[in-house]
Amino acid sequence: MREIPIRDITLHDDNCVRRVAIFAGLTPDQQDLVATMARPQILDDGELVHSVGERTGKMFVVHSGQVKLYRVLPSGRKLLLRVAQPGDTVGEHAFLTSSPTLDEAEAMDGTRLCVFVHEDLTGLIQRYPDIAHRMLRTLGDRLAQTEHQLVLNTQSVDVRLADYLLQQPVLRHSPSEGLITVRLPLEKKDVASLLGTTPESFSRALGRLKTKGLIGVDDDTITLRDLDALEDLLAGDV
Questions:
Q1: Could you tell me which residue ranges the HTH crp-type domain spans (predicted)?
Q2: What is the fold, at CATH topology level, of the domain defined by 155-235?
Q3: DSSP code of residue 48
Q4: Which of 125, 135, 155, 183 sits a CA distance of 20 to 30 A from 195?
């Protein structure tokens, strides 16, 4: 893990604080003040932000790159819970509850972080209570997403895959043909883990949806050929 000069993130409009939802209620001047408290760090691909059971006393903001969050099972197997994107925060639960981390966080793609230590962030919350409210809202949104995933995990892999594809950002849209193209943001094995299945089952589900004419597959690029049928699959109508 390498530190970089604080001035690198405070003298640009693209500093990490401006990207983060929990700081959105602050004025630009207040955001710049918060940015001076951030401790920038760069992690190489595969380097751990934190492991399970650590008391980091920190909250991490993803400035660039991505961070994978895993739940490590007693067997040693890792389940991918989510992937934090630029502007996302990592470690709020451990920070708010003063408890050890429940998951393992691993950097991807040369990730750049802004790190807030407990003392600084506590002072910010006392000064700007809206930050705490937004942190709790973020955790609430994440809990809702987890509940949604738990319900989905009772469904077939085909249903889980359809739901995942419909949530991805549109890469290309051809209204005349009724086609939407998306790109898998992760390796297929990681998408499979997110969906609570194996890479083999994930590949078979892709094949089934392709055979039914619902999607087209070109490596990591997926064309959604029949949106109505995909939505019907989610609704249990097919």
A1: 155-228
A2: Arc Repressor Mutant, subunit A (1.10.10)
A3: E
A4: 135
Tokens 């920070």 belong to residue: 95
Tokens of 11: 């003298």
Which comes out higher in pLDDT, residue 162 or 5?
162
Helix (H, G, I), strand (E, B) or coil at 64: strand
Phi, psi (deg, nearest 5) at residue 237: -90, -5
Q: Which CATH number fits domain 16-153: 2.40.30.10, 1.25.40.10, 3.40.50.2300, 2.60.120.10?
A: 2.60.120.10
| Cα distances (angstroms) measured from residue 139 to each of 15, 87, 129, 133 | 23, 15, 16, 10
- CA 96 distance to own-chain centroid: 19
**pLDDT tens digits, residue range 113-133?**
999 888 888 888 888 888 888
